[in-house]
Amino acid sequence: MSRSYLPHWIHWLGSPPNFYRFAGALRPWFMAVALISALIGLYGGLVLAPPDYQQGDAYRIIFIHVPSAWMSLFIYATMAVAGLVALVWRVKLAEVIAMECAPTGAAFTLITLVTGSLWGKPMWGTWWTWDARLTSELVLLFLYLGVIGLYNAFEDHRRGARAASLLALVGIVNLPIVHYSVQWWNTLHQGTTVNFLDPARSSIAPAMLWPLLVMALATHLYFFASLLGRTRTGLLSLESGKQWVRALVGGQPAQTTGAPT
Amino acid sequence: MASTAQSMHDDRVARGRRSSGTSASAACIALLRRDLVLAWRRRGELFLPLLYAVIVAALFPFALGPDPELLARIAGGVLLVIVVLAMLPALESMFRVDLEDGTLEQWLLAPQPLALLALTRVIAHWLTTVLPLVVVMPLLGALLNLPVKVLPVLIVALLLATPLLVLLGSVLSALAAGARRSGILLALMLLPLAVPVVIFAAGAIAAAQAGMPFIAPLTWLAAALILAIVLAPLACAAALRIAVES
What we know:
The structure holds 2 protein chains of 2 kinds.
Chain A: H1 8-14, H2 16-48, H3 62-89, H4 92-124, H5 132-152, H6 157-170, H7 174-184, H8 206-238, H9 243-248
Chain B: H1 2-20, H2 24-41, H3 43-64, H4 68-92, H5 96-100, H6 103-109, H7 114-143, H8 151-177, H9 183-209, H10 215-244
Helix pairs in contact in B: 2-7, 3-4, 3-7, 4-7, 4-8, 4-9, 7-8, 7-10, 8-9, 8-10, 9-10
């Protein structure tokens, strides 16, 4: 019949029971590496890295703040891509993945805002300022909350997931605004100091850079581990009437959402 | 098999168009007329957003004190916030009634493109609920001591910003139409999308008030409006399809 453009294993992985087992096998590894690299990154950032010549020790909050900020954008992009797949190809797994991205993304956005304002108090002398980057990050938080709220306002979770995926796609216009706000509007928030495309132009010291990158690795891996775990429970709740879930919880008639009894 | 079914469908659609003569433009005009007539029959409701706007505008001098200079300085931003807030309640019911009585299913079945029908609804909504607000804004501006020389800029900014907000709101309203409760949800979803619009519109008014060039924010708004006229009906149509299917 029609030729498949995707390798077979993608179709295999798209089936909820297969993904459930796959995610369960992968998750501990991601979590373990995330914890180890977080310990290394925090040790490197909080102990080994030298104090900043201007900001003293207060700058060390960037080892939490900057990876969280990167994650807030990265998770939104992940959510939008999964949402696009869910809308175009109606893949059930993609709907679950898109919706399970949102709470973690909102949490990282909140961490970014809180750590930023903790740092802003000693450095700028104010908890909050209506600076372009702060405002657009706050808008990003509201976008996440809108996606979560819309998803939960539907009785039917699959329809809710599709509606919220469309909202996520509409909101993606905010992503470049957050990312480039410090370059477009020269305001209080400092400019980019890490340049991945051209490392020679990065203005951050190598002793500060490597803990930052290790922390970024840790947050990415943590996000993947958390996403796999959340997707597992999301699939269980969505498929609670199906045979494979019943077999998994011990052959009882499934009425609950698969919570252990 | 599929191609014959498709051609039969095309044939039926073509015959339907010939027999009743409903081209896309005729359907849009009929829809626009229906919406306007319905709004006129219930014209008392059209005053509610106006009343809301007047009340909120009247509260500001009470809360901040009647200092003319202070009021003049904040008037532009206050008026924009009032417009956004006064638009919100009506936005919720943009598609809800049509979803409940099955009109939206007819929209989906109609030979005319769904995006075009959605755009027509947006135009009707703007004419009936938002245009009166824009008309009354200079009056409220006078209440808040906005300088008269800024009024043209205020009106142009509103004429560019409010259709843009209604277009963005139509997507969200269609998304929320299928949900159980959507009152505060719509506000939560509209806020992130409304922020840039409010920034640019208020920026134009503030620049005009300070005697600085105000064309740049207005052209940004116009560019965004053109983009939204093209893209928002398509997103709205996709959202309506999600709302109808169940």
